[in-house]
Structures are given as C-alpha cells and as structure tokens.
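Hey, I was hoping to borrow your eyes for a little while. For a while now I've been wondering how a particular protein folds. The fold is given in discrete form, as structure tokens running alongside the sequence. Could you read through the record and tell me how the tokens relate to the sequence? Take your time with it, there's no hurry, and the full record follows here:
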Amino acid sequence: MNGVLFKDLKIDEKSLSECNPVYRSDDDNTRLYIVQNDPIRLDWFGGMAVTLVSSLQREDWWNDPYLEVEILFKLHAAYDGIRHIWFGEAVGDAMGYIYYPDMVEFVEMFSIIHEWEKKFCALDL
C-alpha cells in the first residue's frame, strides 16, 4: 500500500481537502469526492476515491496535514457519461492493484457516481 499526502491531491486543480465528500464509509476511513469544477460545462465532473493509510492524529484525521491516503480510483465524466477510470496509483509494479478491496464500499461509491452521471450527463441512463 503506497500512501500519498491527502493535502496534495486535486481534481482539476481543486484540492480535495477543500471539498465535501459525497460518500464516507461507516468507519470514515474511505471517502469519495466528486467535483464539478467548470461553471460553463455543467456536464463535466471528476472524482476520486481515497482510503486512509496513516495519520499522526487519532481523531479527525482528515484534517491532519500529514494524512496519507491510498488512491482507490480516479475518474472523469463528460456529456456522454463516465469516460475514464483509473484504479490504484501507477507506482512500481502495482499499477491498478488494490489490496483487499471492500466490494460493498465500491458498489456504494459507484452507485453514487451513476446518480451523478444520470443527473449531469446527457445520456438516457
């Protein structure tokens, strides 16, 4: 599991630490962020799911400046739906690899993403 600093993560130049998650796991270790960051192109959005790797704080770790997370996936959607999904982080030989994924969390997150897709993309989904 490779950790990256949460404070350094961005979706289309918007810092995740400035965004509200659209999904939180029951233990709040995993979060999904979706950003609609273009005031002109309302049919575009980006997303990123992350999970806790380490924190120096025992509580309120999402505000820890040294919080490390693992990127579960990133995605981009346009007018015609989800276009790109990248799983994991391309680090060493672990490209796209996720260790023991929680499939219930993935189903819940992808259900939320699909709702965003139906709301903001022009497809009849």
About this structure: The radius of gyration is 15 Å. Strands lie at 4-5, 10-11, 14-15, 23-24, 30-35, 45-54, 68-78, 81-87. The helical segments are 103-120. Residues 4-120 form one domain.
